[in-house]
Write a structure and sequence with these properties.
CATH architecture of the largest domain: 3-Layer(aba) Sandwich
Cofactor: pyridoxal 5'-phosphate
Keywords: Aminotransferase, Pyridoxal phosphate, Transferase
Shape: globular
Radius of gyration: 23 Å
Protein name: Aminotransferase class I/classII large domain-containing protein
Bound molecules: pyridoxal-5'-phosphate
CATH topology of the largest domain: Aspartate Aminotransferase, domain 2
Pfam family, one: Aminotran_1_2
Number of domains: 3
Number of strands: 17
Number of helices: 14
Distance between the termini: 38 Å
InterPro entries: Aminotransferase_I/II_large, DapL/ALD1, PyrdxlP-dep_Trfase, PyrdxlP-dep_Trfase_major, PyrdxlP-dep_Trfase_small
Oligomer: single chain
Strand content: 5-15%
Structural class: alpha/beta
Largest sheet: 7 strands, mixed
CATH superfamily of the largest domain: Type I PLP-dependent aspartate aminotransferase-like (Major domain)
Length: 462
């Protein structure tokens, strides 16, 4: 195969990474890696100017809030670096423990329900078009009884969706641009990025790597990954994720009780992200609604993505209790309903058939097995880094291991690991300035890949 052909093959098999000339930075040296900047496989004439002249521009101004966003979203940036690495090492067996996408097949008890629903769509009796925007009744009822039994959450408090990330953005549309937000630092990037897009923030301040007008609640080993609320400024909205992505830490009942009280004292709304609740091993709350009084100050978003391998199928849900009111007494759920009806149109009926199967006794058993498999991966990764003398956090209650590299730049560590082991991790600073000096290693991977990655880590750090 020609060199151009090899490059094309190795890149096109990766992701939708933005392909541009890039500099691959390593702590000890910098290597220029040039990859084709436009369509691969298109042979360009030597005389083609590198700068393409745009012939026509509309008169529409770019959304100034989107223009505030820094570089790419974290994971496309990682995919870009992975692609550049493959150009440099076309034969490398790259192992990805980075983005946090699931790898194991969906249990058949779940896919067979989706297949049946899918085939039924080809029959007159089984066909259905638009469904209820809030989700199908049986799915809402099954979510309520499976995850919120005895917590006073009713089926009509539940909105079934195409995933937690999508709901986070829809919630931001509900809140609008005039609210202030707080996030754990580090945190899942969608909270900050959606906040910037909605215009809730000021500009990015490069020196401190923070957006103006966002309250970053530092979560580090020093405070047990729970923010010191006495130093946190009041905001309208508080995004809080437990078990946490990326640190893998989970808040205790006492800590969540403090958080609910803090929200109540400040008149704030907590957006509680419980996307990893089923990974909890310790006796911590799996839902914010386990905390008395939370229904007046919190809503919760969750997902089937990491329980059943639904990252591609797409199904999640958001719980908004009737008791949660805006300052004028209007229910938050009613405004969310309006946004769901306007901007969404309900989750796919096939995905919902899968979701219902997930919540059957056999489906629940199968999900626990999938989660158990990833938790074994987590153990293997934790043991590896522990044996190498690193300080390792998370893991027990989440599929993420948070490894400390004190005094080092996360991107340098990420680059060194990729360069020397061909393993993709995630640099902690990509989740906020509080993640500097850490890398996140995801437990989502085939067992042989996790074992191989750990063998390579042992060689690198022995
Ligand atoms: C904390 C957190 N929330 C939400 C999501 C997105 O979930 P979904 O696939 O349901 O959109 C993720 C995915 O990685 C996540 O880590």
């Amino acid at each position: 195969m020609s060199l151009q052909g090899q490059l094309s093959a190795s890149i096109s098999s990766s992701s939708s990474a933005f392909l541009a000339p890039s500099v691959f930075i390593n702590s000890s040296r910098a290597v220029n890696v040039s990859v084709p900047s436009k369509r691969l496989g298109v042979c360009r004439c030597v005389a083609t100017p590198t700068e393409e002249v745009t012939a026509y521009k509309t008169t529409v101004s770019r959304n100034a809030n989107i223009a505030k966003l820094q570089a790419g979203y974290l994971f496309p940036e990682i995919a870009r670096r992975r692609a550049a690495h493959l150009v440099k090492y076309p034969d490398a067996k790259v192992i990805s423990l980075g983005i946090g996408d699931t790898t194991e097949p969906i249990p058949e008890v779940i896919t067979s329900a989706m297949a049946q629903r899918s085939y039924a769509l080809s029959t007159v009796e089984g066909y259905s078009g638009y469904g209820a925007e809030q989700g199908e009744r049986p799915v809402r009822a099954a979510i309520a009884s499976t995850f919120y039994k005895d917590l006073g959450i009713e089926e009509d408090d539940i909105f079934v969706s195409d995933g937690a990330k999508c709901d986070i953005s829809r919630l931001q549309v509900v809140f609008g641009s005039d609210v202030t937000v707080a996030v754990q630092d580090p945190s899942y990037p969608a909270y900050v990025d959606s906040s910037v897009i909605l215009g809730q923030t000021g500009l990015y301040q490069k020196d401190i790597q923070k957006y103006a007008n966002i309250e970053y609640m530092k979560c580090s080993p020093e405070n047990g990954f729970f923010p010191d609320l006495s130093t946190v400024a009041r905001t309208d909205i508080i995004f809080f994720c437990s078990p946490n992505n990326p640190t893998g830490s989970a808040a205790t009942r006492e800590q969540l009780t403090q958080l609910v009280q803090f929200a109540k004292d400040n008149g704030s709304i907590i957006v509680y992200d419980s996307a990893y609740a089923m990974y909890m091993s310790d006796d911590n709350p799996r839902s914010i609604f386990e905390i008395p009084g939370a229904k007046e100050v919190a809503l919760e978003t969750a997902s089937f993505s990491k329980y059943a391998g639904f990252t591609g199928v797409r199904l999640g849900w958001t719980v908004i209790p009737k008791q949660l009111l805006f300052s004028d007494g209007f229910p938050v759920a009613k405004d969310f309903n309006r946004i769901v009806c306007t901007c969404f149109n309900g989750a796919s009926n096939i995905s919902q058939a899968g979701g219902l199967a997930c919540l059957s006794p056999e489906g629940l058993k199968a999900m626990h097995e999938v989660i158990g498999f990833y938790k074994e991966n987590t153990q293997i990764i934790m043991e590896t880094f522990n044996s190498l003398g690193f300080k390792v956090y998370g893991g027990t209650n989440a599929p993420y291991v948070w490894v400390h590299f004190p005094g080092q730049s996360s991107w340098d560590v990420f680059a060194e690991i990729l360069e020397k082991t061909h393993v993709v991790t995630t640099p902690g600073s990509g989740f906020g300035p509080g993640g500097e000096g850490f890398i996140r290693v995801s437990a989502f991977g085939h067992r042989e890949n996790v074992l191989e990655a750990c063998r390579r880590f042992k060689q690198l750090y022995k």
